Amino acid sequence: MDKYDLLQQIGDGTFGSVAKGVHKKTGQLVAVKRMKQKYYTWDECIKLPEVQVLRKLQAHPNVIKLREVVRENNELFFVFEFMDGDLLGVIRKCKQNMPPAQA
Ligand SMILES: Nc1ncnc2c1ncn2[C@@H]1O[C@H](COP(=O)(O)OP(=O)(O)OP(=O)(O)O)[C@@H](O)[C@H]1O
């Protein structure tokens, strides 16, 4: 994970905490999810439902890209492209712009 600088924590869920980060060489913004559980083998990491589902959905334009999965010192990190703004806000804005439903 040396190639990323972590800036600030942006979320804390049941399974992991999420930090905004930046790729040191390219300057690309990322969201790094650090899982709370320890993982002792790579095999158990790639079998995780989160990994399996995200791999299947990667071709979809509306799904955040999973850039890489890193296991380091028995810790597991998911590195996602960074989404600026909040999804609920985007959905609310789209709904406002939709024409009213026909009776
Ligand atoms: N790719 C991203 N870009 C920007 N912010 C993100 C990204 N991924 C997660 N976040 C932020 O981190 C928060 C927590 O994300 P996380 O994936 O841990 O959700 P969760 O469903 O609450 O977690 P868990 O599955 O561990 O319960 C999100 O609500 C969001 O604010």
From TrEMBL:
Gene3D superfamilies: Phosphorylase Kinase, domain 1. Keywords: ATP-binding, Kinase, Nucleotide-binding, Transferase. InterPro entries: CDK, Kinase-like_dom_sf, Prot_kinase_dom, Protein_kinase_ATP_BS. GO terms for cellular component: nucleus. Residues 4-103 form the Protein kinase domain. ATP binds at residue 33. GO terms for molecular function: ATP binding; protein serine/threonine kinase activity. This is Protein kinase, putative. It comes from Bodo saltans. The lineage of its organism: Eukaryota, Discoba, Euglenozoa, Kinetoplastea, Metakinetoplastina.
